Amino acid sequence: MAELVVVGTESDNPFAIDVAHALGQVEDVADLISLRSFANREFCPLFIKSNKREPGHGLDGRTVILVSTASGHFSRDALAMRNLIVARAAKDNGAEDVILVEPDLFYSAQDRGPRLEQGEVDFERDASDLAKFDGQAFSARLYAECLKTAGVSGAVTIHNHSAAVGREFARCLPLGYHNLSPDIVFVHYIKDSDVLDLSDDGGNLVICAPDGGAAEFARRMHCALDLKNTGMLELTKKRFGERSVEAHVAEHSELKIDDIAGKDIFIVDDMVRTGSTIMECCRKLRAGNPRRVVFGVTHFYSSEECRAVLSGHFLDEIITTNTVPTILNRDMQGRLRKKMIVLKLEKWIARFLLEHLEMKSNLSDDDIYATDMSSKNPRWRRHWSPGT
After folding, report:
1. pTM
2. CB-CB neighbours of 239 under 10 Å
3. DSSP code at position 382
């Protein structure tokens, strides 16, 4: 099996560093690649080769793991271009394969174009859907094709909402497209903490989908929890504008609002941007007088608007991940940090890579993530003790 070389697209990227450490890489990422630029500011990364290798062969037989995350210093456009140039540098210097690890996959929003043949979706596209993309680029396809041209062999991402994006990447990349769902990580944390009441084999817990798009994730979470008395509540939403949403209980929902009194509600979704959907969902749920409402979300886009919306009293706690690493900046979170728990996914991703590449892992079965919780969170003080 080829030797792994883990690098990133930004100096001192903690996500890349932690993935490298979990994969057993001894060398510091900064000692393997120099992310330099020319005087004209064009990006020119340099793999730091072994003295024993001739020019152009410093990465012969090696698999490069390229870790790319959203950043507070570079735009997503700039980071995407860096991906291409680092991947090409790896291939031009002998790398056998380049695997892109991009937890929050760039250009996923444009998962189809303005013509019927531009995007393989799971529904019949009508005139209004085609018009939505009129004049725009089918950028998901472009990004996949660019990565292939640059030398990327495979891609690993987390909880991407678009099946069409997956099909484009799988078609382009010989080592495939791997869209990992963090169900197991959320479930592990829920069962290993007191964030929700799991007594009576889940009889005091309800899993809630805030809209039809989150229903599949909610069902997977319900199944993974494996608590026979846990109920399911599914909502639908009607959008009247970018920030105007109205929520209703879906006709096929197992539970109704009258069934949730005194229970803990766990709302799950793949992403939050403005917070308007979750705020409306919580408004609807609070009418049923639940004991506690917790929001579990994979991708947290921490805009000022979103933080202001979610800091309201209607939501007790937020469990999210670090797919968008700026979530770990507590100064940015402000008051919201007192009810936020971040599950760090680097070990979990490393475990997948080792299994996928059929390499031995030194990580234990329970060692799949780390947590980040502010001391402002009331549950932190309940459980903290010296040395923990």
Report:
1. 0.93
2. 13
3. H
Burial 206-221 (b: 16+ CB within 10 A, else e): bbbbbbeebbebbebb
d(CA 69, CA 66): 10
- Give the CATH number, domain containing residue 16: 3.40.50.2020
Share of the chain above pLDDT 70, in %: 96
Residues 149 and 203 in one domain: no
129 part of a folded domain: yes
User: Where is the domain boundary, 130, 154, 180?
Assistant: 180
Do 329 and 203 share a domain, yes or no?
yes
Residues 374 and 227 in one domain: yes
Domain, as residue range, for 19: 4-180
What DSSP string runs through 197-250?
Answer: --HHHHTTEEEEESSGGGHHHHHHHHHHHT-TT-EEEEEEEEESSSS-EEEEE-
Q: What's the whole-number mean pLDDT along residues 293-318?
A: 91
Nearest Cα residue to 235 out of 159, 287, 185:
287
Residue 353 within a domain: no
pLDDT digit string, tens, across residues 53-102: 788 999 999 999 999 999 988 999 999 999 999 999 999 999 999 999 99
Instruction: Tell me: pLDDT of 317 over 80.
Output: yes
Residue 229 and residue 163 share a domain: no
Residue 215, pLDDT > 60, answer: yes
Task: Check whether residue 171 and residue 266 sit in a common domain.
Answer: no
Domains in the chain, number? 2
Two tokens at 283? Answer: 């408004």
Return the number of other C-beta atoms located less than 10 Å from residue 166's C-beta.
Answer: 23
Which three-class secondary structure state does DSSP give residue 380?
helix
In a domain, 364, yes or no: yes
pLDDT of residue 50: 66
388 domain-assigned:
no
Q: Rounded to whole angstroms, how far apart are CA atoms 71 and 68?
A: 9
CA distance 380 to 141: 44
Angstrom distances, CA of residue 241 to CA of 110, 162, 244, 279: 19, 22, 5, 15
**pLDDT value, residue 386:** 44
